[in-house]
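Structure tokens please, single chain.
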Amino acid sequence: MKKGLGEIERLLFAYVGMTGRLAVRSGDLLIPLQLTPTSERNLLSRLAKAGWIARVRRGLYLVPSRLPLGGKWSPDEVLALNTLMEDSDGRYQICGPNAFNRYGFDQQIPTRLYAYNDKLSGSSRIGSVELALIKVDRNRLGDTEEVTTSEGWKAVYSSRVRTLFDAVYDWSRFNSLPRAYGWIRSELSRRRIDAPRLVETTLKYGDKGAIRRIGALLDREGVEAKLLRKLESAAPQTSSLIPWIPTLPKRGTVNRRWGVVINGDA
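Here you go.
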């Protein structure tokens, strides 16, 4: 595409600025810009390829509120995620590395935005925003908090407790064990979370592996017996053992109560 904007491109941005639109769909420009479907499609495609607007999916584009400086523009990552999920009529919560960073567990800034959701799976790119979409059953969504970003967008994050739980439950996806054990210990000692809430979240969203690992951790931390019994009843004793740290060989002290091989010092 040529470096400058032509008349029709300028008309599009003038129309967007006047109407306050954040997104344009196929058909939106036919009447106000007097375009045919083909010319509208070509216009949006050219602008997206040139980086002036961002393609969400075929027929749906995010547009800047003003002409981008330098001729390149990419949407805020939360705006991109919100637009995609609203278009899909889906629910989401930002999770994993992004939530680890938000709550101060990990200082590394992720290059992708991770989100549990009930509609889409896989990777998606909107402008320069990389999304890692993790489809889960709707009943696995929840325990969230709403955050307003510096740009003014509403973002839904997994709560602090849910994030810690997911670091144990979804360890293979997020590469979060054994670090998560240290995070949980620290948050308990600083009273940023409490054991009853962690147990409640674990029982609601956990599988037997997560329940047993978190049970073993809380047992080692001296949590009151009635909370441990709740976890124990949800993960009855078994002769099948799981490793405390899944990435290490399953050799170490056996905790029979939880069916966990303590194979590291985490």
